[in-house]
């Protein structure tokens, strides 16, 4: 379903085709929490390419919120209902969590589901949108070899985009994880959540990470930068020297 | 002569002691060319920590220029009279080049001399300021192993700061060179001069590169960023996530 292509040799701008959906790569994802329904337009203005609605973190009825976001922006929307074990805040049962995600998918262009979600296969059978399958290591206990295996598991599970968020513990760790990114040909998003890995949010995109997540007012994960910081940093780092 | 120390556990700001001279690490170096005598103050305002006077690139009498810069700024000054084979523009003989550098050293806090300079040893015997010994590979033909050897040669030659500017040809090259930076304990400046390595100018400092060079109006080397771009990028990438 996925395809990576260079669309213009002149601009070097790449695109990622996910079925009917085409997104720029790398794309800046604005991760919206709290009063999300009012923030989509601001995210767009700050340089976001995609909006993520964190169903587990928004104020009010999450389905009402994503509906409003859908009516506010023409940007692609990712629906995410993060489980507690991976840094989320959803308080219901696993079945309730997946049901909400699947309902929200109606207004989304992509959904994000965890590799470790108990009902992952059920969810994947029931959804007809491209899927991000994600893995978060908040403790930084995964070795390079383990993460390589996890990336393979994610791809084998049918991910259109693989997403791995790591808590690197050293600069050498960062280089190993950037190396992992260079090795894979599958569309992959790699995120650094520690202080020592924070810069990966702006640097991993240069090494092929297809998505990078930023916040508007309030971080939704450790080490996250704001959308405007990402936009600025990518502009400076990614520009050609002319 | 050199020593790397963490001065405040609170700010995590490091300093590099070079004899009597103490500089922040990483430090942003504003490389001044052309009408350099008027630019030092602007460089300071844009966030430079050190001023480099490119004796081979300034308008007018280089000794007059560096004297004016000395009287304009309290920032440390690097005197550089780059040889043609390493990207410079000095048109006299090697002896004239070294004589000008040594005279300029009077108003400088550091001097930069090339590992491959014919009169390097003579120059080092005659100067009592800390020394940056530099190597530039504009073709990108040096392998990782060769650059590792060059770094050792630079250190053995008595460099207070080793400076290696590489033209990386791939993202994998970048990771290898960042790895080399992690391996050395000697104060080292690592620079990327290609498009694919351009971001190293802002990223190598996070991996221990002690200096990063920016321009004010006009680049003095391929892939160079401006001082204000470096200041901005380091601010975003280097900040702790709080």
Q: What would you say this structure looks like, in words?
A:
Helices cover 32% and strands 27% of the residues of chain A. Chain A has 242 residues and is of the alpha/beta class. The first copy, chain A, has a nine-stranded parallel β-sheet.
In brief:
Chain A is an alpha/beta fold. The first copy, chain A, has helices spanning 40-45, 62-72, 94-104, 120-126, 144-156, 171-183, 200-203, 227-238, and strands spanning 2-6, 14-18, 21-25, 27-34, 50-58, 77-80, 110-114, 131-137, 161-166, 188-192, 211-215, 225-226. Helix content of chain A is 32%, strand content 27%.
Q: Share of helix among residues of chain A?
A: 25-40%
State the secondary-structure class of chain A.
alpha/beta
Which pair has the most extensive contact? A-B, 28 and 28 residues
The strand count of chain A comes to 12
The helix/strand order of chain A is: EEEEHEHEHEHEHEHEHEEH
Quaternary state reads: homodimer
Q: How are the strands of the largest sheet of chain A arranged?
A: 10-9-8-7-6-5-4-11-12
Cα separation of the termini of chain A = 35 Å
C-alpha geometry of chain A: globular
Major β-sheet profile of chain A: 9 strands, parallel
- Radius of gyration of chain A over all CA atoms, rounded: 17 Å
Give the strand content of chain A.
Answer: 25-35%
**Which residues of chain A form runs of ≥5 with pLDDT under 50?**
5-11
Q: Let me know the average pLDDT of chain A.
A: 91
Number of helices of chain A: 8
